[in-house]
Amino acid sequence: MGPGGRGTTPIAVIGRAFRSRPGPRNRGLPRPRSRVCETLAHFASGLGLALGAACTNPSLAPAVISNTVDTVTLGGVTNTALDVPSGFSLETSQAVFTYATANFDFLYDVDPGRRTVFLPTGILGLTDTASFKPGLLKSTEAFDSMVSAPADGYETLDTIVVSPADRYYLRSGLLTSCSGTLPFYGKLEVLNIDTVANTIQFQVLVDRNCGYHGLVPGLPSG
């Protein structure tokens, strides 16, 4: 077991993770909706309206899972109690214990310089170098105004320093539950960082319908 009682497999790669290196951004999949539709989604959300069929993607299966906002707490992967999860999985939209599974998209930790950071799995060496990697993309929009996730531009290979009130778009890797060809998208906002307890709390919404970019609560239309 590593520091804080956590497993050695995830922690063994943390040293590499903190050698922060800029990496190419994964350009990934084509957008299932046009920029026009993303703009319409923004105004439709503000008016409490749903988008019509013109802005759905006919190649996607009908959405069956409603979007909900959850509050999640993660502990640093080092120097945190064993019963506090450190990773977050978009596939389940839940916190996970990184010593028990590698099925997560990013984890939380405090680096040697005492920076509070998110670490995507790409920098941890837990995804194939040629694969479509999970990532985070910082946003200046208010959480409720983040209504449609971009398809690309995500940071997948670098340490991401986080502070209270920071907001990010999220993207998973390609999921077996989506036939290995599509990701999930989401958004989060950091609510609190407790440097004594070594924890971070954020609100998060994940669209768990394969390939859907919509980030408004309720059943997405495409």
Notes on the protein architecture:
- By secondary structure, this protein is mostly beta strands.
- The protein has helices at 8-12, 14-17, 35-46, and strands spanning 69-75, 87-89, 94-96, 106-110, 116-120, 135-139, 160-161, 167-171, 185-194, 199-207.
- The protein has one domain (3-207).
- The chain is built from three helices and ten strands, in the order H-H-H-E-E-E-E-E-E-E-E-E-E.
- The strands form two sheets. The chain has a five-stranded antiparallel β-sheet, with no helix packed on it. A five-stranded antiparallel β-sheet has the order 3-2-4-5-7, with no helix packed on it.
- The radius of gyration is 17 Å and the shape is globular.
- The N and C termini lie far apart (44 Å).
- Residues 1-5, 7-36 and 43-56 have low confidence and may be disordered.
Keywords for this entry:
222 residues; mainly beta; five-stranded antiparallel beta sheet; 3 helices; 10 strands; globular; disordered N terminus
